[in-house]
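Morning. Coffee machine broken again, so started the prediction first thing and wrote up yesterday's gels while waiting. Chain of 93 residues, entered below exactly as on the submission form.
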Amino acid sequence: MTVPLDRDYPMYQDWLKLKASEFTRLGYAKINEKDLWEYLFTYRWKKGRPKRYHQAVKEIMRITVNDYFNFETIKAQVYDVKPMNELDLDGLI
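Came back before lunch.
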């Protein structure tokens, strides 16, 4: 699932890069700013983005690795499920 980069993305991009570099220092180099944007857009800000810029930045800087991986777990369980008719079940028997 990919999230379109809306017109506000560039406004937050530097903060997202900063958070992604923090995750890289913690050993999670594959998480980039677009992944964090998807997390914010589809999960944390699902019901609406903070009204003020500084509130949004504060939320970006508060994202933890646990927050992000909780989202990825939910996404894997909900969004990436294939319909039964697309599964290859012949190898199971």
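The CA atoms of residues 55 and 75 lie 25 Å apart. Going to sketch it on the whiteboard this afternoon.
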